[in-house]
Each structure stands twice: as structure tokens, then as C-alpha cells.
Design brief:
Layout: H1 6-20, H2 25-41, H3 43-62, H4 68-74, H5 78-92, E1 101-108, E2 111-119, E3 122-126, H6 132-143, E4 147-151, H7 157-170, E5 179-181, H8 185-192, E6 200-203, H9 207-215, E7 229-233, H10 239-251, E8 260-266, H11 270-283, E9 287-290, H12 292-295, E10 301-302, E11 316-322, H13 325-335, E12 340-344, H14 348-357, E13 362-365, E14 385-386, E15 394-395, E16 402-409, E17 429-430
Parallel strand pairs: 3-4, 3-6, 4-5, 7-8, 7-12, 8-11, 9-10, 9-11, 12-13
Antiparallel strand pairs: 1-2, 1-17, 2-16, 14-15
Helix pairs in contact: 2-5, 2-7, 3-4, 3-7, 5-6, 10-11
Length: about 450
């Protein structure tokens, strides 16, 4: 049997989305638990497929075509699969975002307006080499009642295919076609033309890639771009704690978008902080690059102007000495990607000043940038981290995959009553109520 066309897959997803929006939370959550169980049962098959991707990736790494960070993101393991199934079950246990009354307003006696959470509809995602991203996106889409069109990178094609098949087979009770896998690059171009059928596209990749998506579609785009993240060690920092946080932010897992790429150090503490920090980084194999003032204190390679806007995704870090908190803010706002920034200081006023002035989706005080994550935020998982400002920002979980409808319950009300020379005035009273079909004014 030939593979269905992209148009057929999108059409099936569009039809499924209408039905999935009305599937009960219990049924959607049960399906998620079934996915987790199925992934556990298929561990050997998944790891065997992943080994093919990793072997191919290592060959391309040796040929200079792939980075070590990309190959690291490809790898699955029994412990990684365990964390994936834990994530799926965590999503299942999240509160149902559908049908929630967000606002209730009485326009007049017996005329009530409700703002109620609903799915977006058909959500398409184009994502990078991490196979676990496919599971995260599918799980969040199902819980939020959205049909999902999934396009992973070709470097993870074996892993993605098996994971998709496991998910599809585990959710036979869900509307047929709710999850679709596309694999060819040309399929993405066809998908981008289908703005009447696809409600949202979420690219995860470089700024250039996200820009390409935005330039080639009328579909709303929720972009997940690079993470050029900073840690700023302030003049009032606890230097021992600062060293621990700065180390964690780079070394704990350097291949991800919330790892720190530039360390800023106030000139008042540079002499005390940098030597020990550089030694600690060096022991972990971090390649260090510093500006001239850093190199006056420690022996590291010279940083170029390009380093300040670089997402390394690896054990590489640029460092800069700044004269003041103002200089730190200016550097971050000029060179960051609006992802995640952190200030390390014991001065609450300085911390607040930094946090208010930084333009980023997440700004931390005395914490590692690695906390910028949907699971760690308690969102269950994330489909990505949005560095834009509309309609969702930061780690995008269930809330970012929903929109709302207005439901108006009346009892023969006419606009004519509220117009003319002697109109009936509106009440416009907020009240604590949940929408119930046919409720009308029966809120007592």
C-alpha cells in the first residue's frame, strides 16, 4: 500500500481534530497511560531503531557533517525511555485544559457570557534530532485535544518511525488520524501551503529555520529558536553558590537550548571568581573563550564578536567582564535570544532591577538556566520554548495548545432592547460560574 499524501494526512488530522475536541478527559488520559505502557513494552525495538540513527550520526560526526551535540541529542537509553514514560504519565495527570470556564460575565439578567477553553485544532510541529520530542509533542497534543502532524529530523528517522507507530497503535480508541507522521522535506513545503487546514505550526530549530517557516506560510507560527542564554555573576553574588550555578548551567547537559552560552562577571568580583571557575570548567572539558578583560585574569582563548550571539550546544563557553549591572543588562538584551537569563546576587533590589529590565521569556534569580523546561515548570512536558511573545511564551505546555470560545446563554434576548433612545443598560457583572449547556440564567 502506498504512503498517503501529505494532503491526505492533513485532511485526516483535520477530521480527527473535530472529534478529539469532544473526547472526555478520562479517555484522553487513559490513552496517554496506554502510550507509556506501550513504550515500555517496545523498549528493545525502540533502542534497536535508535542505534541505527546513532551509528549513522557517528559516521557523519567523523566526517565533520554533524556535531557531537547533535549526536548526543539523538541517543536513547533505558533510563531515557523511563524518563519519557514518566513524562507521558505526568501529562496524563495534568488538569484537563478543555471546557474550563476562564471568565463568566453577566451581561443582563438571564444573559450570560462564558469564555471557555478549547483546543487549537490541527497543530503541526517540525523539530530537531531529539526523538523524545516526538513523544512530548504527541502527548501534549492528545491531552489538549489537538490533532498532531509530526515532522522530525531525518537524522532520527528510524527512532521517530518506531515511536510514532507505538503511539498510533496504543491509541486505537482515539479518533482515527489524530497523529500523523511526515518525513520528507518536500512534505513540509506542501504542509506550509495548507493554511485552511492547519491551525498552528511550531518549528524547533535555528533562527534561520524558523524565519524560513514564517516567510513561507500563512499559518500562525509559534517559533522555538536558539537559546543564547546568559548567567550574570553580580558584584553582590555569593561566589561559592555562583560557581555551582554557573557550572550546572553549562555542564549538566550542554546540548540543550537552556544551557548557558555566555557568562558575564562584574568587574568587582572577577579577580576572585574567575580563576577557580575556569579551573572547574577546565576539569569538565569546557572550551573557554574570554574577552580581553577576562584574559587579563585567566589564561583562556580569545572570544570573537561572533561568540556573543553563538549557541554552542556543546562544552564551549564565552566569558565577559562587565563594569556594572547596567552593562550586563545591555549585553544580554543586545545579544541574547530572549530565551532564559539568570542573575546571581544576594541583593534583592539588584535582582529585581535585572529581572524587570531583561527582555526574555524566563528570567531567574540565583538559579541555573537549565530550569527553563516544561516538565520542571510543572507543565507535564513542553512542545518547545517560545522566544516570541504571542500567543505563548517560554515553555509551551497544555495552556499554549489551547485557545477559547465565547458561549453566550440567553432567553430570547434582543440587541434592539439595548439600543435606541431609551436602551436597557448592560450589567457587565463578573461572577463565579461554570458554563453548563442550556444553563441560561439558572446560576442560583
Amino acid at each position: 500500500m502506498s504512503e498517503p499524501s501529505t494532503e491526505a494526512k492533513v485532511g485526516a488530522a483535520e477530521s480527527a481534530a473535530l472529534d478529539l475536541a469532544n473526547v472526555s478527559d478520562e479517555a484522553r488520559s487513559n490513552a496517554l497511560h496506554a502510550i507509556a505502557d506501550a513504550i515500555e513494552d517496545a523498549e528493545d525495538e525502540i533502542l534497536a531503531a535508535n542505534e541505527k540513527d546513532v551509528e549513522a550520526g557517528e559516521e557523519k560526526l567523523a566526517a565533520g557533517e554533524y556535531s557531537q551535540a547533535l549526536v548526543d541529542r539523538l541517543k536513547l537509553s533505558p533510563s531515557k525511555l523511563e524518563s519519557i514514560t514518566e513524562m507521558v504519565r505526568s501529562v496524563a495527570e495534568q488538569d484537563d485544559p478543555l471546557g474550563e470556564t476562564l471568565e463568566a460575565r453577566r451581561l443582563d439578567d438571564g444573559l450570560e457570557l462564558y469564555k471557555v477553553g478549547v483546543p487549537i485544532g490541527v497543530v503541526a510541529t517540525v523539530f530537531e534530532s531529539r526523538p523524545d520530542a516526538l513523544v512530548q509533542i504527541a502527548a501534549l497534543s492528545l491531552k489538549s485535544g489537538n490533532a498532531a502532524i509530526l515532522k522530525g529530523g531525518s537524522e532520527a528517522s528510524h527512532s521517530n518511525r518506531v515511536l510514532y507507530e507505538v503511539i498510533r497503535d496504543a491509541t486505537e480508541g482515539m479518533p482515527d488520524g489524530w497523529a500523523q507522521l511526515i518525513e520528507a522535506r518536500e512534505d513540509v513545503d506542501r504542509l506550509l501551503e495548507m493554511d485552511e487546514s492547519v491551525d498552528l505550526v511550531m518549528p524547533r530549530g535555528s533562527s534561520a529555520f524558523v524565519q524560513y517557516i514564517q516567510d513561507n506560510t500563512k499559518i500562525p507560527v509559534l517559533g522555538h529558536t536558539e537559546g543564547v542564554c546568559h548567567v550574570y555573576v553580580d558584584s553582590e553574588a555569593d561566589l561559592e553558590m555562583a560557581a555551582d550555578v554557573a557550572y550546572d548551567a553549562k555542564v549538566q547537559y550542554p546540548a540543550v537550548c537552556n544551557a548557558v552560552e555566555t557568562l558575564l562577571v562584574h568587574e568587582a568580583v572577577a579577580d576572585d571568581f574567575l580563576p577557580g571557575m575556569v579551573e572547574r570548567y577546565a576539569e569538565a572539558g569546557v572550551e573557554l573563550r574570554g574577552d580581553e578583560r577576562v584574559r587579563d585574569v585567566v589564561d583562556v582563548d580569545a572570544a570573537s564578536e561572533a561568540d556573543w550571539t553563538q549557541e554552542y550546544g556543546d562544552l564551549v563557553l564565552s566569558m565577559k567582564v562587565v563594569d556594572s549591572l547596567d552593562d550586563a543588562v545591555s549585553h544580554v538584551n543586545a545579544n541574547g535570544s530572549k530565551h532564559t537569563e539568570s542573575i546571581l546576587t544576594e541583593d534583592a533590589e539588584r535582582a529585581g532591577d535585572f529581572m524587570r529590565r531583561i527582555d526574555a521569556a524566563s528570567v531567574f534569580h540565583n538559579a541555573s538556566t537549565r530550569f527553563a523546561d516544561g516538565y520542571r515548570y510543572g507543565l507535564g512536558a513542553e512542545v518547545g520554548i517560545s522566544t516570541g511573545k504571542i500567543h505563548a511564551r517560554g515553555p509551551v505546555g497544555l495552556d499554549g495548545l489551547t485557545t477559547y470560545k465565547y458561549y453566550l446563554e440567553g432567553d430570547g434576548h434582543l440587541v434592539a432592547s439595548y439600543a435606541g433612545e431609551d436602551p436597557t443598560p448592560f450589567l457587565h457583572e463578573e461572577f463565579d460560574g461554570e458554563w453548563v449547556p442550556g444553563r441560561l440564567s439558572r446560576t442560583e
